Amino acid sequence: MRFAEQATFADYFSGRAGVCPEPACAKPFDWWNATRSWIAQGFGFGSVLALAGAQTTMHFFHVKVDQVVEVDLTAEGIPADADIVRLNLTPQGGGVFPIVLHSNEAVVELRSPKFYVRGLPLRVPGQPEPSENKVAALAVWFVRRADDTRDRHLVDAARQYEAGRYDGVVVPANIAAEAALTPVVNGALRRHASEKNVDVFIRDVGYSGLMNAVVPMLADFYGVPRIPDVIRGALNHLRDLRNKVGHSGHCPPQSKAQAAEMLTAAIFGVRYADFLRAELEARRGCSAAGGLG
Known about the structure:
Layout: H1 6-13, E1 18-19, E2 28-29, H2 31-42, H3 45-51, E3 55-64, E4 68-72, E5 83-91, E6 96-100, E7 114-121, E8 132-142, H4 149-162, H5 170-189, H6 195-222, H7 229-248, H8 256-288
Antiparallel strand pairs: 1-2, 3-8, 4-7, 5-8, 6-7
Helix pairs in contact: 1-8, 2-8, 4-5, 4-8, 5-6, 5-7, 5-8, 7-8
């Protein structure tokens, strides 16, 4: 998925024109507007999470009628401790339908890369007795990290949007962006001040000061492209809505288009944090070699 690669976002943040990934199109366009419109008009849970940094893996297996088979996605390279946030099983023919077996907990948000499937016969009068079917398993997954705050809240924001609870996108989307950007700023400032002083400073300036003053200052200081104003503005609006939730206990009703922009802002905020971290680390290497101070 070319549009979901970090290099695509790096090009965008660096000011290089985006190009439509469809070979029949291949025209330049703005990734921010294109992503926001796509989420609003053609939302796909797995594809949206791929934009946010999730991995997608396809695996094929066979199952017979009433047979129970273990499906092991680690064989396709998915880490054993990964979190499967969306799993789609698509029969490649008729006759036998895959049913995922579970414990007495029928609704499970996260799934292990290993699970069991039973083949359910779908008999049609006048048709041959079903026996076996090939199944395509499409998994969307994140690598579990010690601090996966941003990933968990991006997943939650996408689920709220998918369910049509548009005001429910606000809090998790804001947390995801803030949880992505703050550690990058924290790490950069600790090169110039003590851990205690940095922690106090970040607490005092708050997320607004960090987003609107500290992040642009760091970008300028190290010669990194700033976060685009359109994204910073959307993140500021998202933060304002989150503050209304915190201060009043509820969020004003949000339209689908407004929620799509909030979700897009969170995704681009997370991706800019990754971009900024990579650029700062690259310049840190220059500093060690006698470049930036």
